[in-house]
Amino acid sequence: MNEEVTEKPQILFVDDSKVIRRAAVKMLGKDYQIHEAVDGMDGWQQLQRNDAISVVFADMQMPEMGGMELLANIRNSDDDRLAALPVIIITGVGDTEEAKRAVFDAGATDFIAKPFESIDLLSRAKSYARLNRKVVELEKKTGYDKLTGLFSVAIFEEQGEKALSFALRHRLQISAVYLEIVNFQDIYLTHGKGVAQQIITTVGKRLKDVMRTEDIAARIGVAKYAALLPLTSEPNATIVIKRIRESVNKLVFNTGREKIRISLAAGYTSADVTEKQEFSEIMEQADTALQKALASSSGEKVCSFFDKEAVVETGKHFTDEDIHNAFQHVLDGAYFQVPDHMLQAVADKLTPFLDYVANRTDTGRTGTDNS
Q: Which of 57, 120, 279, 340 is most exposed, with minimal Cβ within 10 Å?
């Protein structure tokens, strides 16, 4: 509990100007954890992955996806938490009063104009981070996800902690599963909110239909679900996952123009009943396995946390995008932005290239000597 209070609130700053992003990091970095995005699309993808972001600052004008389009995606999201996120639009010097009024009409929480002072960012960050925290606390009091009827995240965690405690006390098997609709963002962008919402709702209902009475299931993200399976070993968890995936993968959705199918990726783990474990720990293991499954080129897209290739020395799996973002920080000279737990992974990626450069250099010197 105390750790959560001392953690820095997380802010997403979206601007195509690296200079502006650097200035924002300098102004806010002492009190907040800043995530940078180069345009609205990059920002939207980060919001899909990180539910800890509490405030968004977004430039109004950007080449790929501007702040207004990002704002529309946020406000139209099927994820209630995301849809209610405070969004501050940054307007340029040349933006008209009509444009600024349109910012509020579109659902922006506030706006600031360039050039801005540190007090402009700090005052809004402080106010809206506090507001978002209160909203999240209120949402935790509700027990069910409105779209699917599955448990809310708060109730899932509460029930999960009790189930895990019982399993550990009596040395009973228990497994955890994370499930996610593959390429859901592409479906959303191609077919729109209506189809996306229908898919989320139908998958949630199908989960309720195929899972056992004793199982605990929740919707924990836009297209992400979690399940806790009491009295279930890791091998038996694969049977449950197979039943769930076969049922969901049979679904066909008619958009009016075409019929589309979906598939679920799954990551799973089992608690070690011989030692004390926290509920958050086994769920992190399941999420790590899910990320490995999503990154897999295999058609099955099912991974166990205990698969050798699913676990790296740091205990975390990094996607290609994680590595790409880390390299971008290196290229920008912002080495401090590379998370400590990724340093070894980045170094490992660079080693073959450095060896190649060394060999090429040696070859070049040899060629010069021979001439």
A: 340
- With residue 46 as reference, give the H or E element that holds it: helix 40-49
β partners of residue 144: 151
pTM (global) more than 0.85: no
User: Which residue matches tokens 């992974």?
Assistant: 345
Residue 172 φ then ψ, to 5°: -105, 145
For residue 9, give the DSSP letter: P
Question: What is d(CA 264, CA 362) in angstroms, rounded to the nearest whole number?
Answer: 49
Residue 284's pLDDT band, with cuts at 50, 70 and 90, is: very high
Number of Cβ within 10 Å of residue 368's Cβ equals 8
Domains of the chain in start order, with CATH, are 7-139 (3.40.50.2300), 153-317 (3.30.70.270), 322-363 (no CATH)
Give tens-digit pLDDT for 312-323. Answer: 333 445 566 677
Select from 74, 76, 96 the least CA-distant residue to 85.
74
Least confident stretch, 239-248, 256-265, 359-368: 359-368
